[in-house]
Amino acid sequence: MKKHLSKYNPNNPKNTLPSTLFEPYKKEICDLLRGRNFDKFMESEKYTRFCQWKNFELNIQVGINLIYFLNQQFPFSF
Fold this sequence. Notes:
Blueprint lengths: L1 H5 L16 H12 L1 H8 L1 H29 L5
């Protein structure tokens, strides 16, 4: 990565980083997630909390959509 960054000059807008700069890291992360570490994460309390949070987010969105739908079908004002 230092090899690529050493050629990058932030003051020159024509200088850009190569699109493949993070490919080695992407592969390493994907390989890591395929292994035992991801299984450990799924068995952990952190994964349980993550699922609870995602469920909470989904329920909020469903509630907002329901309120919007009901206001469209049955408009009323206070």
